[in-house]
UniProtKB/TrEMBL annotation:
The keyword Chloroplast does not apply. Coiled coil: none annotated. GO terms for biological process: meiotic recombination checkpoint signaling; reciprocal meiotic recombination. GO terms for molecular function: ATP binding; ATP hydrolysis activity. The keyword RNA-binding does not apply. Residues 164-316 form the AAA+ ATPase domain. It comes from the Eukaryota. CDD domains: RecA-like_Pch2-like (cd19508). PROSITE patterns: AAA. The lineage of its organism: Eukaryota, Metazoa, Ecdysozoa, Arthropoda, Chelicerata. GO terms for cellular component: chromosome; nucleus. Belongs to the AAA ATPase family. PCH2 subfamily. This is Putative hpv16 e1 protein.
Length: 421
């Protein structure tokens, strides 16, 4: 029997297991703060509106419909983007409200801020999921992974036979959207699972603050932090997300400490973290989301506990193009750019081939920059060509080209200065 990975992939493809047989479309409707309609009425109107549009879209203009003044936004998305019609789709509508609370702080001893705290869904995380652009299907895979984790818990699958910890590890270079994707996932799952959980809670742990200035105290601080988290988990109606950014700070490889290169306090921190993960996996309403810029130094015992591990690299040219397009559409929406980019309109009869060539060239030149850098460049570009009135598309693209050039120059200077240290 040939069990190679290639043959396995071929068998899966033949059995159509890689593509869901049930075609589900999710529409998420954000209620206005002044909404007076009942939820079932909103669902009926959203279903009608989405099927009329018949394509995935972000809808914000509801003039002339019963949803005007009742709903601020409807986001429609589905996995199989090759579908041209929603006629055979199962449409699932999620109606939700957002919290307008500011980010809270969780403190330990001596007023030390140990975590940022969001009540979900949060207005501060709105739109984050839609604006994270990846070439890989990582977002859909994260949703599928989360659904499987909850299903196994619901079906009471014996964890001694099949093990899962509800731990995610996203790793890769800085600025590739790892932390943002974790926050967006927490927001998305809270919305999608609203019928099951009344609210979500997201705690972003400040890894560095958990290292005490007193020897041997750091492990105790980690335990105290997770005791606070436990009080949230004990409420079974709340979906809890624990985000540990730069997890290598807490889960540093113990072999280095044993070899004498790290203080023994670091070993206590890793042991405390692993113990808490093993405790929390018993609860169906908690996910641990972690990120790392330097995954090679993470303790293997922690890496082994992560069910979902994914490397996020720099955006491809196609992703660079989508990122810049989303930025330009936003600038046009607020009239900072004074005209449409006709070459971006597939049905436009007045395409400007020169601008199209310029845009493709600048996108190619930006490959290798991080997503964080790419989304700053339109701001830098406008500062280069700043005028009181709106700029033309051509002027903006030329300025964006210059901004990309400057960014590469700065990157090279930083790399050079590091090499001279």
């Amino acid at each position: 029997m040939n069990c190679s990975r290639t043959n396995l992939k071929n068998h899966l493809a033949k059995e159509s297991l890689l593509t869901p047989k049930n075609f589900y479309v999710h529409a998420e409707a954000l209620k206005s703060r002044r909404c007076t309609l009942a939820e079932n009425v909103i669902i009926a109107h959203v279903e009608e509106l989405v099927r009329q549009r018949d394509y995935p879209h972000i809808l914000t203009n509801f003039s002339g419909t019963p949803l005007a003044g009742q709903v601020d936004k409807v986001v429609t998305e589905y996995v199989d983007e090759k579908r041209e019609s929603l006629s055979d789709a199962t449409l699932v509508v999620h109606v939700y409200e957002v919290s307008y609370d500011d980010t809270g702080l969780e403190e330990l001893e001596d007023g030390m801020a140990a975590a940022n705290h969001w009540v979900l869904p949060s207005v501060h995380l709105e739109g984050l999921w839609e604006n994270l652009i990846y070439e890989s299907p990582v977002k859909n895979e994260l949703l599928s992974y989360s659904s499987t984790a909850l299903l196994f818990a619901d079906k009471k699958v014996d964890p001694n036979i099949i093990s899962w910890n509800k731990v995610v590890l996203l790793h890769g270079p800085p600025g590739t959207g790892k932390t943002s994707l974790c926050k967006a996932l927490a927001q998305k799952l809270t919305i999608r699972l609203r019928s099951r959980f009344s609210q979500g809670q997201l705690l972003e742990i400040n890894s560095h603050s958990l290292f005490s200035k007193w020897f041997s105290e750091s492990g105790k601080l980690v335990m105290k932090m997770f005791q606070k988290i436990q009080t949230l988990i004990d409420d079974g109606t709340t979906l809890v997300f624990v985000l540990i950014d730069e997890v290598e700070s807490l889960a540093h490889c113990r072999s280095a400490a044993i070899g004498g290169n790290e203080p023994s306090d670091a070993i206590r921190v890793v042991n405390a973290l692993l113990t808490q993960i093993d405790i929390m996996k018993r609860y169906p309403n908690v996910f641990i989301l972690t990120t790392s810029n330097i995954s090679g130094v993470i303790d293997l015992a922690f890496v082994d506990r992560a069910d979902f591990k994914y490397h996020l690299g720099y955006p491809s040219q196609a992703c660079v193009s989508k990122i810049f397009i989303s930025c330009m559409e936003e600038l046009r929406r607020v009239s900072i750019i004074n005209d449409t980019f006709s070459f971006l309109e597939s049905n436009s009869d007045e395409k400007d081939s020169e601008l199209e060539t310029l845009f493709c060239t600048l996108c190619a030149s930006a490959v290798g920059l991080s997503g964080r850098q790419l989304r700053k460049l339109p701001f830098i570009a406008h500062s280069i060509c700043f005028v009181d009135n709106a700029v033309t598309p051509r002027t903006f693209l030329l300025a964006l080209t210059e901004a990309i050039h400057r960014q590469w120059q700065e990157n090279e200077k930083i790399v050079g200065s590091k090499g001279s240290l």
